[in-house]
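Review this today:
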Amino acid sequence: MSETKSTCCYCGVGCGVLVEHDGTQITGVRGDPDHPANFGRLCTKGATLHLTVAPGTRSQRALVPELRTDRAATRQPVGWDTALDHVADRFAAIIREHGPDAVAFYGSGQWLTEDYYVFNKLAKGLIGTNNLDTNSRLCMSSAVAGYKLSLGVDAPPCSYTDIDATDCLFIAGSNTAFAHPIVFRRIEAAREANPDMKLVVVDPRRTDTAEAADLFLPLLPGTDIALFNAMLHVMLWEGWLKRDYIDAHTEGFDALKRLVREYTPAMAATVCGLPKRDIELAAEWFATSPATLSMYCQGLNQSTSGTHKNSALINLHLATGQIGRAGAGPFSLTGQPNAMGGREVGALANLLSAHRDMSDPTHRADIARLWGVPDVPSVPGKPAVELFEAIGRGEIKAVWIAATNPAQSLPDQAVVHAALAAAELVVVQDTYRHTETAAYADVLLPATGWGEKDGTVTNSERRISRTRAAVPPLGESRHDWQIACDFARRLGARLDKAELAARMFGFDSPEAVWNEHRESTRGRDLDITGLSYAKLEADGPQQWPCPEGADTGRVRLYEDGVFPTPSGKARFVAADYVATAERPSARYPLHLITGRLRDQWHSMTRTGLVPRLFNHEPEPQLHMHAEDLARRDLADGDIVRVRSRQGAAVLKVIASDTMRPGQCFVPMHWGGNAMAGRFGINALTPSAADPTSKQPELKHAAVQVDKLTDGHALMAMRRVTGDDPFAVLGALRRQLPDLPYASLTLAGREVPVVVLKARVGEAETALLDAVDAAMGLDDPAQTLAYADTHRDIAKRARVDDDILSAVRLSGETRAADWLTELMVRGESAAAVRPWLFAPLTQPPAGQPTRGKVVCNCFDVSEEAILAAFHGGESLDQLQARTQCGTNCGSCLPELKRLATR
C-alpha cells in the first residue's frame, strides 16, 4: 500500500491529505501532518473522501463520452473523437452565424488552476468571447470586488497564522464551525492558548460558531453595513481611531466620516435589532485590542450589497490600523477548494489573468501578447445569473458547463431549468453523471475527479499546493485541461485558426500550463515567478507573492502600509445600508436564511454518495421558531410548503431556537435529486445580484410557510448489500416529480440504506408499484404484506437471512424510525417480526431510538451522549470512553452544547 500527497477538494482551507492506495484503487485518506493549512487535521467530509471513490460509487461516474443529437432521445456512448468533433462542429457553426458571444462556458472552483487557465485562454483568446464565468461568482465575487475597491487588488492580506496571533477575532456572516471546520479547530486552539482572546460573532442565527462567542450579535438579515457603520461611529466618538495611519496610508476618510455620523448606536440598534450596548462593546473590542482579525464568508458575500458589506468591514480595519501586522486584518474565507486559483487566472467574465482588469487596454494588450493573439475582447462577458438568463432568451446558443451543477446551485431555479431546456446545445463536462445539470446534457464528457488529477490549487491564505494523482483516470475520463486543449485544436481548424490553436494549446502536461500562468504573473501583485513545480515538491506549499529570487512567499501583505492603488493608499468606501432584495410582506412575512450543514457540501454530488454523512441531519428540513409554528398551527415534524416570489419547496419543519421569531432557516444543499418536483431549495431564492460583483443574494428570501395536507404518508427503506444503492436511488428519483412531497436520502454506515419519505395520493397504485419494484418488494413469494383498505393502509416488508432488508409503509408510518435503525444496524429481525406492521413509535422491546449521530467519526448518537451526561459523566470522561470529538473535532461545538443541557 502506498501514500500520495494531495489536497482536499472541499472548502477553501486547502487541507493537505495523504491518499492511501494500491496503485489502482484509493483505500483511505488521512490528514497530511506536514501541510501548513491543517497539520494533519481533516473535517468529517475530508476524512471520508476515500468513500466517495469507493468501488460501489462507480455507477455514478461519467466513464465514457455520451452524445445525443435529438433532445427526445437518450444519450448514447461514443468515442472521444466523435463527441469532440460534434461539439466543435456545433460551436463553429454558431460562432460563424451569430458571433463568438453566442457561446459560453461556465466552470467551477473544483477546477485546478491549470484547468482554469486553459479554459480562460480558450474562451477569451481563441474564440474571442468573455462569456466565461464560474461558480466562484456565487461565493467569492463580492470578496473580490470588496478587496479591489478598498485595497486595490484581490489579495487577502492575512494568513492562518494570524489566528494564533490575534487578540480579537471578529467573525461576520460565516458559520466557520460548519463551513470551515479545520479553521475553527485552529480558533479553538488559539483561544485555549490565549484565554484573554475575544471572539465576536455576527450572524442572524445562533450557529455552532455563535455558541462559542464571547459576544454574539444576532443582527436582522442584511443589516451588516448599518452595524459596521455604527461601530465606526462609536470609534470616532471615543477617539479610538489611528489618525496617523489614516493620514499616511488611506484616502477618502472625510466622506466616510460624514456618512457614519448618522449611524448612531441607537439608530443601528433599531435597524439591526441589537442592543445598543452590544454594538458599543463590539466597537470597543475591535478598536482597542492589540490585534483584531476579521473573518467573513457568504453571509456578507451573497447579497445585493455584498461588495459594500466587504468594504464596510475593511473600513474598520483601516480606521483602526488593524491591518498589515500579525493577528490583524480582513480575511475572507474562500468557499471552494480552488476559487482563489480561478481568481488568479482571471476566470470570471470581467477579469483577465494575473489580476488584470478587462477595462484596461494595457492589461488586454499584455494578455494578447502573452497568448499570441491580435487582441482580447474588451466588453465583459455575462456573469452567472445573466449568462443563464441570456441562454433562456436565445442570445447564447451553446453552453459548456464543467465541474459544477447550476441546475441546483443557481438562484431562481425555474429560470435556470427553462434556459437549459431552451439551449441549442448543452455540453456537460463532469466527473459524475447523476447531477441535476447532467440531465440536460446533449453531450456528456467524462472528466477525472479527486485522486486522479494532477496540478495546483490555491487556498484562502494565498498558499499554492500541489495536487497529485494517486490512481489512474477511471474509465475513459480525461483531465479538464486536456479536454479543453483537444477541443480548442479541433475548433481552431474549423474557424480557420488551426495554426494559432496548435500553438496556443500545445501543452503536454499540467506543468507546462502552470509555467505559462506563472509567466503571466511576472511583475504583478501575485508574482509567482520564484516558484516551480520542483520547489512546491521540495519545499511544500508556498504563499504568493513569491517573485523570482525570493526564497519563500510573503506571509502577510501591506506591512509597509503601501497598497496597489494609483496613490499607493487604501481607500475608505462610504456606503449606506441597503435592505435585502426581498423584504417580508403580508403575503411573504418570513425571512428565509440559507446556509450549510456540517457534513454536506454544495449540491451533494460527492458527499451525497456517503451514507454516514446524512446521519447528522438526515433529510431536508426547515428550521423554524416555535412561535411561528404555533401561529400557523404547525407541529414539529409536519410537512410544509415554503413559498417565495420565485417558487416553492416542500419539506419537513422542525422547531428551532437558533433564530428569532419571523425568521426560518434551510440548508442550501438539497436539490431535485433529493426532493419532490424538479427543483431544490434555490427555487426559493431571488436572482437579484450585487451591481458591482454580480453575486446573487442566495442567502435570503421572503417566504410564507403553510401546512401541506395533500396525500397520505409513505415511507420506504431498503438495505442494499450486494446491489448498487445508487441504482435504487435512480429508480426512485424518476418518481419524485409526481409526488407532492418527498425526501430521498441515505442512512447507515458500512451498509447503505435508501430512505424515501413521501406523500402520495389515494389512487397512486402505479407509483406504489414503482416504489415496490425499486425496493425489491414486488415479489409476493419474498414479501410479507398487510393491507387495511378501509383505512387506506398498505405495508410490505422483506426479511433476508433473518435481516430486515426492505420495508414500505403507506397510510401509517409510526414505526419508520426504529425500523430504519434496525436495518442500519443489520441486527436479527426475529424478535420483532410479529411487530413489523404494528403502529409503534418505539421498538417493541422498549429501547429508545438513537436519534441523530453527532460524532460521525466514531458513530456516537445524540441519545447516547445525553444519557452519558445525565448519568453524571463529564465531557472528558465521555470522550475517553467513546472517543467522540477526538478525531476531526467537527462535533466538538455540539458536544459542548449538549453538555450544558
